[in-house]
Amino acid sequence: MCDAVQELGLEYALDFGPREVGPGSATYRGLDEISETGAAEVVLEVGEAKLLRMLPCRGTDDESAGS
Predict the structure, then answer these.
(1) CA-CA 20 to 30 A from 41: which of 1, 51, 53, 64?
(2) What is the pTM assigned to this prediction?
(3) Which element (helix H / strand E) includes 41?
(4) Residue burial 31-53, b: 16+ Cβ < 10 Å; e: rest
């Protein structure tokens, strides 16, 4: 997920909880409970919906190359 976040320049994500907001059903591996994994922090929460700020990835090759 770190590569995708960096490549796309993502800063925020929306998590609407277990219900779908559009038609159909989808599974997004790597996004379930991202605020609990340390990949994002909750900025705002209304009901089950959350606005998440993506956090810098830790332990990536880019970071360790500068050490």
Answers:
(1) 64
(2) 0.67
(3) strand 40-46
(4) eeebbeeebbeeeeeeeeebebe
